[in-house]
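Sorry, explain these tokens?

___
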Amino acid sequence: MVMACRVINKRRHVGLQQLSSFAETGRTFLGPVKSSKFIIDEECHESVLISSTVRLLESLDLTSAVGQLLREAVQAQNNTYRTGTSTLLFLVGAWSSAAEECLHLGVPISLIVSVMSEGLNSCIEEVVSLQVPIHNVFDRMVNTKTFSGPETFSVGVYPFLQIPSGTGLIQNEHDLKDVASQSLAIYSLSGRPVKSPQLFRSQDKVEADENTSQTPQTLKNSLLADTRCRKSVLTHSRHFSRTGNNQWISKPDGVLEQLSAATPRTYRCDDLVELEVGLSHGGLSSMKLVDEAVRLQYQNAGVQQGSCTVPFLFDISRIFTCCLPGFPETFSCVCPGYITVVSISSTALIKELQNQPIRVVLVEGDLTENYRHLGFNKSASIKTVSESLKVQRDGSEELWTDHVLQVLTKFNVNLVLAQGNVSERLIEKCTDSKRLVIGSVNGHVMQAFAEASGAVQVTYITQVNENCVGSGVRVTIWRSIPFDAADEINRMAIMLKTEGINLVTVVLTSPVTAQVQTKEDTFWTCAYRLYQALKEQKVFLGGGAVEFLCLSHLQILAEQSVNKGNQGCSGWLHNTSSWLASSVTQYRPTVLKLLANGWRRYLSTLLYNTASYSSEFEAGTFIQHHLQNATDSGSPSSYVLNEYSKLNSGILNSDISDKLEQIPRVYDIVTPKIEAWRRALDLVLLVLQTDSEIITGLEQTQVNSQESEGFLFL
């Protein structure tokens, strides 16, 4: 698919330039406000709508070696964590440009690799101070608030970003759902500011707030005045404003503690809804479905407050999606059991089977006449000479189909679930005999039905006996479908349930077929964010806080290298030649600054994408201002933490809350974010070291301009 082209200078590192070009195509996917793209096929002129990095790289024709490496890196990140791919792609581009600039300045490749690697490792160690522990979020599941009402629906935003209400990004509830939270202000679906408990508040703070007056009127009036302006103004940011001389330490249990003249206060996350809102990153409608799925699992597990000895664990392997394009969006919901689609011609059969318990057989592989399991070895002494004759094949399949029906009739089986493909002829004959056969069923679904119904999975239908057959399964039509939608898709949704089954299906619908894939991707991204956060029992302070700290930390390291010379890098390289040691002294600050510039570009693009600034240059000026404040504070990590503790948030909306501290926080998951950084830098350094001949300047011989430049088509 062709999207754009970029001039490639053959006198500079081609591989790094290609990485930068590929990464440039996905910059609009960074942040909570994403812009979809149409990818157009140049040959057949067909187009596809994509809204994620993964779908983008699937659609692009990445035939070069560098393109393949980039795709593999993004796929590895997505297959493992289902999130962090946009960050990975952007940093690949930013750090490719940094490495290319290092080469242009004459920095040795070995030094680029060493300093960049050590710089990133130092950043990873530094941001540990921004981790927030998660404690007992399921303890109050019964009485805690849910996403069920509009009052709890708030946009997952970036704390240091704001946009006044005059920009008109959100007009009504429909816009909020469709545009995926384009406003950076905290809004409920009803247009009112969110009233949700504060995450980082100690008990004494909560009690004190109950007896204190409202926010000072002068501050409130100032905030209200700012919202009337159409121009974006960022003030009083939680990230980027200085406060008093409070200091922060990280206790052994991971709790962030603030040290001041007053009694020390501890901060942690112990509320499920607050965690979900913080991890939604603009995908609130998807996170709402995730919340409902978690609560269904909680109920299915039989967990009751005060009566459970085993803590509840969110099992993402027992959650499945069923996508129904062409259906109204209001049909999207979460249901217990397994929902799948079958041909609309099965309507009469489903109506006859519903409202009665039926018996089920579970087949692990394909349900076809010629299927053999992977370990099957055909006898060498037998040779089939008539296998190619269609008449013989048809006769053989008919005999096999009749035998399968005999087995199902013998054990009174009306439902067959197969993990693989199913013979079309068998489906037809089973339908005629009032038996439902469903293929391509997920392995976890098979296991759930085996546990709940008592069935034992078999490889071949001939292995079925009475002990293998499950019972108590019920089949029903999921819900009534509008006739126009049913005629359009020629399919119907059915629900399979049995008592005690640990299975939840999330139904995703949209009248626009092109949006269904995006909705499914967004749902799984939110689900895996929550799953990973609960698994690790910790999150990062989000909204760019971590990246800002990395930027500030690298700049300090670069300045220290300039001031201390060899002393500042004596521990970096050992037993090296004097030439290399002098190169480290000379070039280390340059490499660190260029590496830090990648974080600067990341934050600038983030601000620009969210419409807070008219240009990335303007956003960069804002970032530089707060970088200076963080440096002057003497402790950038304390500076960021102090901003999160402030009540005068820079997130404004048209109806300022009397308690601004109630605005929800934003969180990032720890391991996926760090792994995205590592994968990005590893890919850049791999491409950097693959070319043995790198031209960083003009040669003595003149190079034809047409030969020195080429076009890279994406």
Summary: Residues 298-305+312-370+397-536 form a domain with the GroEL fold (CATH 3.50.7.10).
